[in-house]
Amino acid sequence: MARGRIRRIEEEFFRDELSDYALYESTERHERDPVLKRLVGRLKETELKHARFWGSFLGINDITKARMPLPIRAKVYLYVIVRRFLGIAFVTKLLERHESEGLNGYKMLEEGRGLSASTRARIRSIIKDEEEHEGALLKQTQKHELMLNYTRSIVFGINDGLVEVLAVVAGVAMVATTSLVVALTGIIVGISGTLSMAAGAYLSSKSERVVESSFRNRKISRTSPRREAYYTGAFYLIGALVATYPFILGATSYLGVVESVISVSIVLSMASVLIAIMSDTSIRRRVLEMLAISLGTAFVTALIGFAVRTVFGVVIT
After folding, report:
1. The domain 3-143: what is its CATH number?
2. Which of the residues 23, 31, 32, 192 has an alpha carbon 20 to 30 A from that of 178?
3. Residue 192: CB atoms within 10 Å
4. How far is the C-alpha of 163 from the C-alpha of 202, rounded, in Å?
């Protein structure tokens, strides 16, 4: 293996371990749950040991005094924000996914060529540590599975509100002459969708409990159907308002659609990232897929509305 290639690998794994150390150090400092606080404290010390191992190849002796690069600091701040708004359940899921990705990277490196016997043995030791980390965080994730279910309701509710109402307002905007018509349509659809989604979430949760109760050895879900309905409906309405607000503020026709598309794309991208993390799927693929579906749907409905106005002369005033 060329020396330049080896150097890049050393720098990459050093940055990853330094990032892990900073992340766990920050999580330990801000975490209030005593069990998770002790866990990330142990993980922090292990990641510091790993960072020192890679730092030794780069001539870096004191890791704790090294200035964290901006991307690492931004990542740490993001975790703090996520903890505050989405709770401990999502943080443990995020940390578990993070450890899984790091473990896969080490396994690929261990299977490669060009490593000395001592380095390969050290990497195997790190892999063992990472497997223990993943297992410990998986237990924490399972412990907070109930809270994670409510987070799923929040994310899927706002996701549906964004996609569905954007399509409606994009189509109506092409045949409406005033922003008031589009705004009222978006609000009406948003409210009806809120009630429909909330009712659907409530009935789905109730049905799940009934089915689970019919199996003697199956643990019954402790989620509250009312809370699931509340979170799903409330955040569907928030998604609907994000798609509609340009017209509420007076934007008309094409300009309103553009503003709505931009707003929805930003919020939908964030929601898609959360969905990808909770479902253990590719973040990039999930974001691109959701943007393609939502923007494609909005484009088709806008095209239909434009055709109805152009061909049939239908205008809503």
Report:
1. 1.20.1260
2. 192
3. 11
4. 21
Name the token pair of 222. 């402790």
Q: Which amino acid is at 40?
A: V
The first and second tokens of residue 144, run together, are: 């907070």
- Are residues 280 and 138 in contact, defined by beta-carbon separation less than 8 angstroms? no
For the chain, the C-alpha Rg in angstroms (whole number) is 25
Judging by beta carbons within 10 Å of its beta carbon (0-12, 13-18, 19+), is residue 58 exposed, middle or buried? Answer: exposed
DSSP 22-47: HHHHHHHHH---HHHHHHHHHHHHHH
Q: What is the mean pLDDT of residues 138-162?
A: 84
Q: Which residues contact 14 (CB under 8 A, 6 or more apart)?
A: 51, 54, 55, 57, 58, 60
Task: Read off the pLDDT of residues 205-221 as tens digits, 9 standing for 90 and up.
Answer: 887 766 666 655 555 55
N- to C-terminal Cα distance for the chain?
70
Hey, CA dihedral for 75, 81, 85, 88, is it positive or negative? Answer: positive
Q: From CA 149, how far away is CA 152, in angstroms rounded?
A: 5
Q: Is the Cβ–Cβ distance between 19 and 32 less than 8 Å?
A: no
Question: What is the spatial distance between Cα 231 and Cα 234, in angstroms, rounded to a whole number?
Answer: 5
- φ, ψ for residue 316, nearest 5 deg: -105, 120
Most confident of 32-36, 102-106, 212-216, 241-245: 241-245
Written as six digits, the tokens of 261 are 């598309």
Measure the CA–CA gap between 34 and 193, rounded to whole angstroms.
40
Q: Which of 67, 55, 51, 61 shows the shortest CA–CA distance to 18? A: 51
For the segment 113-147, what is each residue's pLDDT rounded down to a tens digit? 767 788 888 888 988 888 888 888 878 777 777 77
Where residue 7 falls among pLDDT bands split at 50, 70, 90?
confident
Where in the chain is CATH 1.20.1260? Answer: 3-143
